Amino acid sequence: MAKKGAARKDVPTAPKGMRDIVGNEHHKYQGFFEKASEVALYYGFQPIELPMLEREDVFLSTNSEDTDLVGKEMYTLKTKGGDKLALRPEGTAPAMRAYLEHGMQSQPQPIKLYYYGSFFRHDNPQRGRYREFRQFGIEMIGSPKSVSDAMVIYLTAMILSDVGLKNIVIDVNSIGDKDSRVPYLRELTQYYRKHINHLCANCRERIKTNPLRLLDCKNPECQPYKEKAPQSIAHLSLASKAHFKEVLEYLDALKLNYRINPYLVRGLDYYTHTVFEIVEVPDAKIPDAPAENTTQLEETVEEKGKRTAKDEREAAANAPLALAGGGRYDYLAKRLGSKKDVPAVGASIGVDRVLMSQNYKAVTPRIVKKPKIYFIQLGFEAKLKSLEIIEVLRSARIPVAHSLNRDSLSGQLGTAEKLEIPYAIIFGQKEALDGTVIVRNMLTRSQDTVKVAKLADYIKNIK
Ligand code: HAM
């Protein structure tokens, strides 16, 4: 027989990289979703539930085939009717699909949405990386303004600090707009071509397919070339530079701990302008604190980037897991078939990773109430009527614990004591016939006999 708690080989197990979330752990997740939803609602975001499956096109058209997400990690299936669907690997493209499908352009802009639930990526499971994982996402669709970028970053950081995370650092970068991108990619590609013989196989491929992702490479042999590579913030168009400078000004004003990370390009293809990721660093040493005042912002964006490059190198050595990521995606709507561009910005929090943090303070979900009553029944007559008493309490919103499968008084009282529940209701043969119960104070051991019809009021008054 398998040991208690150990996985059994003779019964089916959950698929690799996926798992059951039970009991207290489930409460932890639910508590997080409730807390994050509450913060989002206060900031005027409205909930949206997106389907688990989308047409494959929603992801294919919004990312090039070279992104890991589309190329390797998507779970796809063909329906009996021949439709090609994908298990959602992320929520941004589906949220934009919903915005366009429901004509939300005609409502006052921006539309602010939040969503949460499971997402699926067929990746190699490792610490903090699952095949089914949970995200909480916010999307602000229909605003080109830098204040929206700042609000999304701020809100994401607030949710993380509200659940106890400390030493949060925001890595931020701008990859510019179309006008910045073309000359930048040309220069980046030319630079990397000169070093092609020293690069890893992935990077050699990326020169052809997705040069921006060259900056994502963690392979040690490519690091010296990455460090000297041209940086996107040095190639921003005037409009992009102004946008990024404003975002940084907001982040300064909001006193957020950020650092410009010129190598941050993100794994998804649809970004423009601002991109960011949030990590929790192990100690209180926050690298590259934000500028204290706006005079320092007169320093050009390029200079700030150079100043932080060393910090970034140090950080990369023991890179912590990204807890959240996001950015602006002004051109995604057109890729989904919209006639016009729709400016938008958003972020997603990796909830499984947040819950792994030592600093995570579990938030008790609203439905979980610590019972202050333990219901004890004695004898067949009482057992028969037990559910009626429990329902009297439930409909009065009084949480109650019980173990109807037990019979002895001492066993049930012992459990009530172990659970540190302050009151017990004792319901025996006599009480069942009289329509009463005995309410016992577990601490003082004093007891009262109470009519079932008056029970809810009685308990509410002993608060
Ligand atoms: P992402 O960076 O791919 O962005 O994912 C966001 C977060 O989800 C990551 O920072 C990480 O915490 C978590 N995550 C991603 N993959 C896994 C995995 N396999 N296992 C566990 N956690 C994971 C997006 O998904 C974009 N949709 C974010 C966004 C929203 N951009 C604009 N709006």
Low-confidence stretches are: 289-300, 304-317
**What would you say the CATH architecture of the largest domain is?**
2-Layer Sandwich
**How many individual β-strands?**
16
CATH classification class of the largest domain? Alpha Beta
Description:
The protein has 463 residues and is an alpha+beta fold. Helices cover 37% and strands 19% of the residues. The chain contains 16 helices and 16 strands. The strands form three sheets. The chain has an eight-stranded mixed beta sheet with strand order 1-5-6-11-10-9-7-8, with helices on both faces. Strands 13-12-14-15-16 form a five-stranded mixed beta sheet, with helices on both faces. Helix 1 runs antiparallel to helix 5 (146-162) and helix 5 packs parallel to helix 9 (238-253). Mean pLDDT is 89; it is low at 289-300 and 304-317. The site of histidyl-adenosine monophosphate has 27 residues, from strand 6, strand 10, strand 11 and helix 12.
Features:
single chain; 463 residues; alpha+beta; BirA Bifunctional Protein, domain 2; Rossmann fold; eight-stranded mixed sheet; five-stranded mixed sheet; 16 strands; 37% helix; 19% strand; elongated; binds histidyl-adenosine monophosphate; Anticodon-bd; ATP binding; nucleotide-binding
Write the layout of secondary structure elements.
Blueprint: H1 23-42, E1 46-47, E2 53-55, H2 56-60, H3 68-71, E3 76-78, E4 84-87, H4 92-101, E5 111-120, E6 132-141, H5 146-162, E7 168-174, H6 178-194, H7 201-209, H8 223-227, H9 238-253, E8 258-260, E9 272-280, H10 301-317, E10 322-328, H11 332-335, E11 344-350, H12 351-356, E12 373-377, H13 380-395, E13 400-402, H14 409-418, E14 423-427, H15 429-434, E15 436-441, E16 447-451, H16 455-461
Parallel strand pairs: 1-5, 7-8, 12-13, 12-14
Antiparallel strand pairs: 2-4, 3-4, 5-6, 6-11, 7-9, 9-10, 10-11, 14-15, 15-16
Helix pairs in contact: 1-5, 5-9
Bound molecules: histidyl-adenosine monophosphate.
